[in-house]
Specification:
This protein is about 30% helix and about 15% strand. The protein has seven helices and ten strands. The strands form three sheets. The chain has a six-stranded mixed β-sheet with strand order 1-6-5-7-2-8, with helices on both faces. A two-stranded antiparallel sheet has the order 3-4. Helix 1 crosses helix 4 and helix 4 crosses helix 6. The longest helix is centred in the middle third of the chain and has 18 residues. It starts with 5 loop residues before the first helix and ends with a helix. The relative contact order is 0.16.
C-alpha cells in the first residue's frame, strides 16, 4: 500500500501543497499507515525549502531517504515527499504499534528545535493537515504522536508543542467542516501544569487566519 492520496487530501482541506518529483513512487511498498507522527527538522531559517526537500528526499550519510512523507514549511506550505514507507521514526512504540516507519505518516516541520517560535500559520496548517489525514485513514486523534513520545529516551521533537493539547486541537478540527474552516465543537484542553479548561466552546468564527483573544488562548495552551 502507498499513500498516493496525500496531496489531494491536503488540497481538499484548503492547504497549499507542492509535490516533490516522483513522490508517488518514492518509498518502500510495505507501508500501512494507521496514524501520523510529528517531527521538527532541526534546521534553521537559513535553509531554503529546496535544500530541505533535497535532504528529506535523498537522506543523510547515515540514513537513507526518504526521511518523511510530508515537509511542512514555516509559511504553512506542504511539500509531499513520498507515498511509501519512509525512514522517519526509528525504534520506539505508541500503544501496541512498534513499526513506526511502516505505520505512521511522518511530517517534518521546519523548525530549528532549539527554541524557535512556531508561526501560527504553520501550527494551523499542521492541525488541519493532520485532521484531514486521520479522516482519510479513519483513525482517531489518539493516533497522532510526537517523535518525543514515540522514542522519549532519544528524541525531543517536536520541541515546544504540547502533544496532549495538539491532539485535542486535532479532535476539535475533526468535528469541523474543514473545507469551510469553521470550528463547530467544544474543546476541552489540557493546559500547562495539568489544568483542564472546560469553559465555553471556541466560537464558530475561530478559523485559520483569525486573530484575537481566543487565538492567543489556544496558542498559549498549545506550546509547552
Amino acid at each position: 500500500m502507498t499513500a498516493t492520496w496525500l496531496a489531494n487530501t491536503l488540497r481538499s482541506a484548503g492547504l497549499t501543497v507542492e509535490e516533490a518529483p516522483r513522490w508517488t513512487v518514492r518509498g518502500g511498498s510495505q507501508f500501512t499507515p494507521k496514524g501520523v507522527m510529528v517531527h521538527h527538522t532541526a534546521t534553521g531559517t537559513n535553509w531554503s525549502k529546496e535544500r530541505l526537500t533535497r535532504l528529506l528526499v535523498e537522506g543523510r550519510a547515515d540514513l537513507r531517504g526518504p526521511l518523511c512523507h510530508l515537509q511542512l514549511e514555516r509559511d504553512g506550505t506542504y511539500v509531499v515527499i513520498a507515498a511509501g514507507r519512509a525512514n522517519h521514526a526509528g525504534q520506539g512504540s505508541w500503544g501496541n504499534i512498534t513499526a513506526g516507519n511502516t505505520n505512521f505518516v511522518g511530517i517534518e516541520c521546519a523548525n530549528d528545535g532549539v527554541g524557535e517560535k512556531w508561526p501560527q500559520v504553520q501550527i494551523e496548517a499542521l492541525g488541519v493537515g493532520v485532521a484531514a489525514i486521520l479522516k482519510a485513514l479513519q483513525a482517531p486523534p489518539s493516533m497522532v504522536v510526537g517523535h518525543k513520545e514515540w522514542a522519549p529516551r532519544r528524541k525531543v521533537d517536536p520541541r515546544g508543542i504540547d502533544m496532549d493539547m495538539f491532539r485535542r486541537y486535532v479532535e476539535n478540527l475533526a468535528g469541523t467542516n474543514i473545507h469551510n474552516n469553521e470550528v463547530v465543537r467544544p474543546m476541552n484542553v489540557k493546559a500547562k501544569g495539568g489544568a483542564i479548561h472546560t469553559g465555553p466552546a471556541f466560537p464558530n468564527s475561530l478559523a485559520r487566519g483569525k486573530r484575537g483573544p481566543w487565538v492567543r488562548r489556544l496558542q498559549g495552551l498549545l506550546f509547552s
